[in-house]
Amino acid sequence: MTTRPVTDTPSVPTTDLQIELTIDSVTVAPEGNAAIDFKITAKANVAHVDGYQLWSEDESGGFFRHSSTKDNAEMHQRPFGTRLWWAHAIRHTATTMRFFAAWSRENPVRVSNYVDIVLPALPAPTEFSARDGGLNVICTGRALPYGEVLLRLDKTSSKVEAGKDGTWRAIIDTAPGTYTASAQCLGGTLPDSPRVSVQVVVAEAPAIPLRLLFPEEGRKISRLTRVTGTARPKTRVEVSVGGGPVAVTEANAGGAWEVSEARSDTPGLVDVFVETPDTGEALRRSVDVESFPVWEVTHLFAGPIVDESGLVTRAGAVAEGRGEQGDTIQYSARGEEPWTDLATVGEDLRWRFEHVAPPPPPPPFRIGRLYLRCPGDPLIRDYTVELQPPVITSPEEGAVTGPSVEFSGFAALKFDIELPDGSKQRVRPDKEYAWKVVLGPFAPGIHTVIARSAATNHKREQTRRTFLVEDVPGTDDT
């Protein structure tokens, strides 16, 4: 093992060299890891000594002891004579490594001559090949185990690490044309290897038309479905089902493409829409999406909670939304079993969970990530539980006001009010959790302000208030 001892002792030789060192036959170790093999001969010029320690010195004056075998067996003393040994390459200059001998394992006082060796360069990659993979180049080869290989394809470059057996493989995307592909082993503390190069021709992509293979016309599918087809190789494919979010994929070198999970937001007869913007092709197909509960979350917050009277619950939790009567909303902290019932949708098509009874037991969820689902809907939704937005008690929604408007209410923590021009004003409630602020002047017309937590990553929970500023006529208009 190569070690760096903690020592401030300089490498100062004695008056007479007590050990003569000779090192030759330096080669790159086949095991990799920027190591070298060499033959070392040590001769003692003093009597009654059994062995020595082999050290090296780097370019900054640090010392390293080389006393372990490749199997990590530690040698407490190296015997004199000639033997094969190894070391991790440590540069003394850009191209050399410096060895010396010392008596101590902990104190590298030099008692021998310096031996500077030239570090050998890594061998070049072998079995290197590059072939057309269909708008990409597939490169393979062999290097030292776990060695790093630098690949270049004209002006494009990438790095790949060889495996335990030295083999490596890389794929570089490229346009049709003729290229020079090269590979070079990177040595780290050893010099890099020479480059090896080959020519490779990448053919034009076949003109494969856009096709939709699955689902077929009129097929019954679940809300979350797989969609497959063909298109021109390496083209972008956009897929949407039933007004759900657009899923994006890319056709492979053979022209096949697949979206593993496309989501429909509408049950019943809907359209599957597929488009390749690069070629301008588009397809539409009608499918039948199995029925699923339609539900949503309108509020999800926890932490200190204040009501419109100023009563504060230090550790509360509120969740509410809309859905279909009788459906159950469940939650899980990890998006997996066990799932716990949170609320049931009532006759008014709303559901609500509230944990604000003072003094409350621990709430079922806290600020952070929370997963919700409705049995019958295959979609598990990932939400962030935020802080409660402030309560605005005045002015009322739709109130008619003058140019300067006094806003008031309650809040458990500091918050921001965003004005119609996008500017923000920080507001801090008093000890009774009440707050009041005068904003304006506003121009005549309808305006909306938004109040939300001062936490930068909390965006969903907000309180909006819309009001009308009257256009008061001046004396000249009377």
> Whole-number average pLDDT?
90
The CA-CA distance between the termini, in Å, is 97 Å
Strand order of the largest sheet: 1-5-4-7-8
Share of helix, binned: under 10%
How large is the radius of gyration? Answer: 37 Å
- Known CATH architecture of the largest domain: Sandwich
Described by the principal axes of the CA atoms, the overall outline is: extended
Which class do the helix and strand fractions yield? mainly beta
Q: How many individual domains?
A: 5
Features:
478 residues; mainly beta; Immunoglobulin-like; 5 domains; five-stranded antiparallel β-sheet; five-stranded mixed β-sheet; 38 strands; extended
Layout of helices and strands:
Layout: E1 2-3, E2 19-28, E3 35-44, E4 53-57, E5 63-66, E6 81-88, E7 96-102, E8 115-118, E9 126-132, E10 136-142, E11 148-153, E12 156-161, E13 167-173, E14 177-186, E15 196-202, E16 211-214, E17 220-221, E18 224-230, E19 236-241, E20 247-250, E21 256-263, E22 268-276, E23 281-289, E24 296-306, E25 312-322, E26 328-332, E27 340-344, E28 350-355, E29 368-373, E30 381-385, E31 391-394, E32 400-401, E33 405-410, E34 415-418, E35 424-427, E36 434-439, E37 445-453, E38 462-469
Parallel strand pairs: 17-23, 32-38
Antiparallel strand pairs: 1-5, 2-3, 3-6, 4-5, 4-7, 7-8, 9-10, 10-13, 11-12, 11-14, 14-15, 16-18, 18-21, 19-20, 19-22, 22-23, 24-25, 25-28, 26-27, 26-29, 29-30, 31-33, 33-36, 34-35, 34-37, 37-38
